[in-house]
Structures are given as C-alpha cells and as structure tokens.
Amino acid sequence: MAERLRTDRVSYYFLKEKKVLAVTTVSGLLYNLGLVLTPWFEGQLSQYIADILEGLRRPSDMVLLALCYVLAILFVQAMRYVKRLYVRRFANHTGLSMKEIIYVRLLARSRQELQGQGAGNLMTRVISDVDACAEGMRKFTTEVFDTGIAMAAYSAMLFYYDWRLTFLVLLFPPAAYFLADRLKKAVTTASRKSRESAGQLAAGTMDRIQNAMAYRLFGEEKTQNGRYERLLADYEKKRIHSGLWENTMEPLYQVIAMTGSLFILWLGGKNVMGLGWETWNIAAFAAYLACFTRLAVKASHAAHLFNALQKAEVSWQRIHSYLIPEDTPSFTPVSPASLTVSRVSFTYDGGSRPVIRDCSFSARPGDIIGITGETASGKSTLGRIFLMESPHEGSILWGGKELGSDISPRSLIGYMGHEAELFSASVEDNIRLGKPGNLQEALWASCLDEDISSFPEGIRTAVGEGGVRLSGGQKARLVLARLVYHKRPLLILDDPFASVDYTTEDLIFTRLSSVCRNSIILLISHRLRTFPQLDKVLWIGQDGRVTASTHQELLAHNKEYRRLWEIQTGERSSPPA
Questions:
Q1: How far apart, in whole angstroms, are the C-alpha atoms of residue 491 and residue 565?
Q2: For residues 397-409, b (16+ Cβ closer than 10 Å) or e, as one string?
Q3: In what order do the strands lie in the sheet with 393-398?
C-alpha cells in the first residue's frame, strides 16, 4: 500500500481524492450516457414535424415530445454541473497537495541551493508547473467521461442505425489522433521553451527590483533596461509560439474528424430513399447525422487533450524531483544535551584564508554563550556554521552525536537572523506557523504583549509584506516570539537587541533566561551590555581565531574586547599588572 501512495506518482493524487472522483464518476456516467438522448430526440422531432405536415400526428404530440426533451436536457445538464463541480474540486485539491509537498521540500533545502537556482526562476517555474499538472489531470479526468464514454455511447448508437456506414465514417476521427501524436514533439518543445523564458523573465524582474538603486548609481540603468526588454520580448515571442501550437490545431482536428459527414449526406440520403444499406426515415437520418457530429467534436477535443497532456507531462518531469518522498527530511524532536565544539574552522568557497579559525568550547542546557568581535569579524558566519549550510572543519557534537550526520539541525536549532523573515499575515499566524497552543509565554518573553494591546486588531493585526507595518524593534521581537513559541534545544540569536532600547533589552534577556532555561543560547551581538551576565563569551579576532573565555577574563587579558567594552559603556578597565 505504501508503494502505491508515493507522492511522486500520479496515482497517489487520484487515490487521495477517491471520494471526490466517485461522485465525478457517477455524475459523469449519467451525463454522458444521457447525451445520446439528444440526437434521438432531435431525430424524433424532425419526424414528428414531417408526420404533422402529412396529417399523421397532432401538434399536441409534438408538444409532449418537446416537454420530454426539455426534461431530459435538464437532467443531463444537472449531471454535467455536478461532474464539472467535482472534477474542478479534484483539480484544486490536487494542486494544493502538490504545492504543499513542494513547499515543504523547498523549505528543507539550503539557502545556497535555492539562491543558486534563482528564487524568481524557481518559484515561477514550480507554481506554473504545478498548475499545468493539475490542469492536465483535470482535463484527463473530464475527457475520460466527456470523450471516452460519450464516444463509446455515440458509436454504439451509430452502429445500431447502420454498421457499414459507421465503419466508413469512423475512419476519420482516428486521423485527428494520429496528427496530434505526430505534433507531440513540437507542442512539448514550444511549451518547454515558453516556461523557461517565463522563469528567466521572473528572475530578471527580481534582479531589476532588488538592484535598481545600484544600477542607477553606477550608470547601468539603460543597459539593464535593454536586457530586461530583451527578456520580455523573448517571453512574448515564445508564449505566442506555444499558444499557436496549442490553440490553432483544434480547428484542424475538427475539420479532419468531420470529413465523415460528407459520406453521411451521400450514403445516408440513399438510406432515406431506400437505395442504401439500410432503410431510414427522416428521424433516423437526423439522429445519425447529429450523433456523428457530436462524436466528431468529441474526437477533436480528445486530440486537443493530447496536447494538454503533453504540456502537463513536461511540467511533471520538471517538478518530479520535488515530489519524491525520500527528499523530505524527517522531523525528530531532540532532547536537551551538552554541546561540544572542537577545533571548528570555516573558509568560504574560493577564499584564501579561514574566516573562523580553531573554535572550541562547550555548553550545557541553560547556558547563554555570547559571540562578539570587531565589525565584519565573522560573528554571523560562526552562528550559521551550526545550520550546516556549508562544509566546515572540526567537530560539533550534541550529546556526543555529530551535528549534520547524526542529528538534523532542523530538529535541534532555532535560528534568528539579521533580517526578520515575516509573512504577509497576522501577528498570530507569523508566530504560530500552524502550531496550536497558548502564545502568552512567547509574547511575554519577547516583550511584545504591550505592543499587541495597542494594535488595532490585537494579535490578529496584519503585519504587511515582510512586516512593513511594524517598526524594526517590533519585527525583531515578533521573530523572537516565534522562536520562543517553537523552542529548540539550541537557539542562535543574531543581534536580537539591535533595534530595542536598553530597558527592553534587559527585560527580554531576563525573560529569555527564564523561559529557555532548558536550551543553550548562542547570543551574537556587537552590544556587550548583557555580556557580564553570560556563562561564556566567544571573541573572534581579526585573523578569525576564536577565544573562548568569560567576560571578566576577556576584560583582563584581551585589549580589543576591553577597548570595545570601554567605548560602549564609558567604563575604564585597568589591565592586570
């Protein structure tokens, strides 16, 4: 069973929505089997008109037949409405399921990997490809009934009236299928190029927005405008080319499929005159022609469906790797334990010297370790080493197990970076991230409770895109509240007090020490106000070498640390004699 439910297989999504598809199946069968009533009624209406003109029937008979026809149409259209409603629901659910799975996979990938692929290019491609796949699955599900079952019912009706003529006229619809298959490569190639161009345009748009000021300052704006215009022109050209292949073929399919109607007019007319293979009246001729016309239209739609499925196949191949279950890292809660860092060094790719050199220290649950140094000394880099985004030398052990290989950073670490990563949602949603529970402790620890009481809608106040409606300090404290609410055994806080006043800083530090007493906190900061209260301080020198000591020891023996402390506090500390 587990093998059948793999998320990288199309069958998974059909099985997941089996209840919705069950309703679709019943309504689809009733609708498409009911379609054969339409040509039959049309034929009978034609015959009734002829009989009334000849005096064989009364007009009241015609009215009764027309009333039955209307009732049949109402029933068929009601089934059509139900089928389309549920097949659209199936497509919507499938698209949401795929996006949820892919978003989880993307969140598990490293920042470098995502940046390497291009954020705009990646997201545009993934979202459009998921939509194309869901639409292809919807069309396939729809056409199974609207084309497959309907064509089978129409064909059975045609064979009933004249099997020899039916064999002849049914030679043409397969020709439409053959043409669609022959054009498969052209359609898929045009679709692929269109989507690639859309991704390049999205990446170019993001670059143009993010670097607009730099291009203007260095006189590159005109050059970049020209580059963007070329990307836009390329997208327009390839989108039109893709649309032409997809949309101009359907009329051609219809012409080919309808060619059989010429034989119906010729040989069917002979049947009415009693000179053909069968003996028909006007009702039989009208019903046969109407039935074949509908079958031919269905056949052209099926050929058009092939093109849609070919586009969906291209999109499926592009997103398939994001849907593989093995790519999803498991989240296993990690218990509090000791942290041991031994001779860790880090050098950027292509760098000539280590940014972090020979870092060694240990910590226990409840410890708060400060990390500081001169400007651009590598403080944030040291904090990010624990996220395992890039290879490093040395060993980082959590409870005796190697971080990265034996323990996932995702399960262990809560990280707060320089930039407040906030969603365009409410304060509550930004903290919860879908996790139920009481937020009071997190709001209290981050000193955000008083601010929220002044917001127009309280905790449900929208923060805007990237937290644009909040101040810098409120953004930082909102991220800190999220970190406290989703507590991890190891918390890494990169400059959390940069945008708050000293009073708020002291209050947050005291409250964090209380609510996170079972966690190890790495406090990265250029402000040393709270450092006398820390259990240990890591000083990063200009050569990248890390000194692990205490605040008092560093004041006594490290002149750079002592100078930084004196600048910030105004206190004079005398070095030891």
A1: 25
A2: bbeeeebeeebbb
A3: 356-363, 339-346, 393-398, 401-402
Residue at token pair 């010429």: 262
Position 512 scores a pLDDT of: 93
Using CA atoms of 240, 242, 246, 251 in order, give the dihedral in degrees to the nearest 10: 40
DSSP 176-232: HHHHHHHTHHHHHHHHHHHHHHHHHHHHHHHHHHHTHHHHHHTT-HHHHHHHHHHHH
Query: Packing angle between helix 18-34 and helix 59-107, nearest 10 degrees?
Result: 150
Which among 43, 82, 110, 139 is positioned nearest to 415, based on CA atoms?
Answer: 110
CA separation for the pair 280, 62 (Å, rounded): 21
Contact 456, 509 (CB under 8 A): no
298 in helix, strand or coil? helix
Q: Quick check: 194 and 239 in contact, CB under 8 A?
A: yes
CA distances from 170 to 147, 211, 215, 429, 497 (A): 15, 61, 64, 59, 77
CA-to-CA distance for 510 and 41, rounded, in angstroms? 83
Task: Report in angstroms the alpha-carbon separations of 197 from 23, 116, 125, 192, 547.
Answer: 39, 18, 10, 9, 51
Question: What is the number of other CB atoms lying within 10 angstroms of the CB of residue 141?
Answer: 24
Q: Which residues of 451-474 are buried (b: 16+ CB within 10 A; e: fewer)?
A: bbeebeeebebebeeebebbeebb
Q: Which of 306-310, 417-421, 456-460 has the lowest mean pLDDT?
A: 306-310
What CA–CA distance (Å, rounded) separates 550 from 557?
Answer: 11
Note whether 538 and 525 are within 8 A (CB). Answer: no
Q: By 3-state DSSP, what share of the chain in percent is helix, strand and coil, each rounded to 5?
A: 65, 10, 25
CA-based R_g, the chain, Å: 35
What is the mean pLDDT of the segment spanning 294-317?
A: 68
Q: Is the pTM of this model over 0.85?
A: no
For the stretch 220-245, pLDDT in tens is 888 888 888 898 998 888 888 877 76
DSSP state letters, 237-281: HHHHHHHHHHHSHHHHHHHHHHTHHHHIIIIIHHHHHT-SSS---
